[in-house]
Amino acid sequence: IFFKNRFRPQLHYSPKKNWMNDPNGMVYYEGEYHLFYQHTPHDTEPDFDNMHWGHAVSNDLVHWEELPPAILPGEDGAIFSGSAVVDNNNTSGFFNENGSGLVAIYTNNSNSAQYGKPQVQSIAYSRDKGRTWTKYKGNPVLFPMKTLDFRDPKVFWHDESSMWVMALAVRDRIEFYISPNLKEWSFASEFGSDIAGIHRGVFECPDLLQIQVDEEPDITKWILILSVGDRNGVNPKDPEPPAGGSGMMYFIGNFDGRSFTLDDTLESLDAIRWIDYGSDFYAAVTWNGIPKEDGRKIWVGWLNNWRYATALPSKEWRGQMSIPREIQLKTYPEGIRLIQVPVSELSQLRKPIMSLQDLTIKPGSNILSDISTEKAEIIAEFEIGTAIEVGFKVRMSANQETIIGYNILKEELFIDRTKSNDIDFHPDFAAKHKAPMKPEHERIQLSIYVDWASVEVFGNKGKAIISDMIFPDLESRGLELYTLGGELKIVSLQINDLVSIWG
Ligand code: FRU
C-alpha cells in the first residue's frame, strides 16, 4: 500500500518522494498548521542550487497533507531556510483592505555560487492561505556586508516595540535586524562571536522566543536557539555536539527588542547547553502564529544529521521530521533548563496494548515477550533499586535490537543502535548515544516513541532527550524489558500501539 514502503515513518512527516531537510516557515493560520521544508522535488539527493520550499498542512499537528512545493527557485537562486509570519496589520502593504496574509522570509542562495557563498534574504507573500506565493519585486531585502554565511532568517512580531525582529545566522554569530514592514531592515545587534567554545561549526537556523518559566504567566525568559553545522567549520577545536556532527544548543537570557543578553555571566556559562543528546535532531524552530489562548511553543526538528543524511538507506524519499514537541522552561536545583514534551495531540493515536503498576522483575525475565510491535509509545516509571542498568529493547529479532536504557551507576540515559540492522551506510551511524540524567526522588521516568525508522526518548518528563534514526527490518517487532545486576521495581508501565498518521 502507498506509504508503507520500506522504513517509511508511520508517526512522522516525510515527503512522498525525494529529498527533505530543515523545517521552514512554520506558521499557524486560520485553523491550519503549515510546515514548509527544504525540498528537492526531483531527487533523493539535496540539490543546493535548486532547493524549494516543500509544503504540508495539518489541522492537528499529527495528520499531514502534502501540497505542491510552495516557493520555487528561479533567477534569484535556490530557496534556503527561513520563516513565515501572519501579517495581521498589513504592515507590508501586500494585503490591501483584504486583511491579513502570510509573508515568508527566506534565504536566496545564489545559483552561481557554491554552497555557503553569497546569500541574501528575500520575501514572498500569499493571499490564499499559503497555497500560492508571489515573490516581492524589491527582493532581496537584506544583503551581507562581509560574510558568506548569512542565512536562515527567523522573524517574529515584537509587541513591546511594535517591530518585526529577525534573528539571522551569520557564520560565528547571530545578528538581529528590525523592520516596521518586513521590507526594510536595519541592523540592531549581534550575539555570540565573543563566546569562547561554541564555534565548532557555522551557526544555522536560529530561533529567539519569549517563554514562560514553570508555566507561570508572570515569569518569562527569552531563549536563543542555535543549530551548529559541522560543514564549513569555524573552530574545529571547539566541542562537538554530544553525538557528533549536527547539533543544537540554547541560551537563556533577555531580549529588549534590539539585543539579546545572557542571564549567566560568561564565566559561569561553564558548559554548552545541548538540546538533544541523540544524533538526529537538527534545525528545529518554533511555530509562529499560535493563538494567545493556546500559548504553547511548539516545534519539529529534522530527524537527521548532515554527516550521513545523503547516505540513508531509504529509497523513494530521504528525510523525516521529529514528532511535534512542546518546549518549556523549568526550574531545577541547578537552574532553569529547556525541556521538551511530545504535543498532547499525539495521544489521539493511542491504542493501549498493556498497562501495569507496582511490579518487581528479576534479571533474565522478559514480561513483554508476548508483545509484537513495529511502532509504539512506551511510558514508564521505575524506582532505582539494586539494578545497575535497566531498559527496553525494541524492534527486536534474532539478530537485531535497539536498546533504550538507563545506566544507574553512571546516571546516564542512552540509545544503543549498534545492532539496529542497517548501519553500514556510514561509519558514524552505529553508535551508543548517552545523555546525563539523575534520578528524581529515587525514580526515573521515560516516554519513548518507536517508529519504522526512529526512536525518540524523553527522559524525566522531557529533561533528557535522545533522538535517533534506526533502520530495522519490518519483521523485527520483539519487545523486552530488562534489568541487569539486580531487581527492578516498575512503578508504572504503559505500552500503546499508535495508529499510523497516514491512516
Ligand atoms: C541547515 C541548512 C541551512 C540552509 C539549508 C540549506 O541544515 O544548511 O543553513 O539554509 O540547510 O538546505
TrEMBL record:
<dbReference type="GO" id="GO:0005987">
    <property type="term" value="P:sucrose catabolic process"/>
</dbReference>
<keyword id="KW-0378">Hydrolase</keyword>
<protein>
    <submittedName>
        <fullName>Glycoside hydrolase family 32 protein</fullName>
    </submittedName>
</protein>
<dbReference type="InterPro" id="IPR023296">
    <property type="entry name" value="Glyco_hydro_beta-prop_sf"/>
</dbReference>
<feature type="domain" description="Glycosyl hydrolase family 32 C-terminal">
    <location>
        <begin position="345"/>
        <end position="496"/>
    </location>
</feature>
<dbReference type="InterPro" id="IPR013320">
    <property type="entry name" value="ConA-like_dom_sf"/>
</dbReference>
<feature type="domain" description="Glycosyl hydrolase family 32 N-terminal">
    <location>
        <begin position="12"/>
        <end position="342"/>
    </location>
</feature>
<dbReference type="InterPro" id="IPR013148">
    <property type="entry name" value="Glyco_hydro_32_N"/>
</dbReference>
<dbReference type="Pfam" id="PF08244">
    <property type="entry name" value="Glyco_hydro_32C"/>
</dbReference>
<dbReference type="InterPro" id="IPR013189">
    <property type="entry name" value="Glyco_hydro_32_C"/>
</dbReference>
<comment type="similarity">
    <text>Belongs to the glycosyl hydrolase 32 family.</text>
</comment>
<dbReference type="InterPro" id="IPR018053">
    <property type="entry name" value="Glyco_hydro_32_AS"/>
</dbReference>
<dbReference type="GO" id="GO:0004575">
    <property type="term" value="F:sucrose alpha-glucosidase activity"/>
</dbReference>
<dbReference type="InterPro" id="IPR001362">
    <property type="entry name" value="Glyco_hydro_32"/>
</dbReference>
<keyword id="KW-0326">Glycosidase</keyword>
<dbReference type="Pfam" id="PF00251">
    <property type="entry name" value="Glyco_hydro_32N"/>
</dbReference>
<dbReference type="GO" id="GO:0005737">
    <property type="term" value="C:cytoplasm"/>
</dbReference>
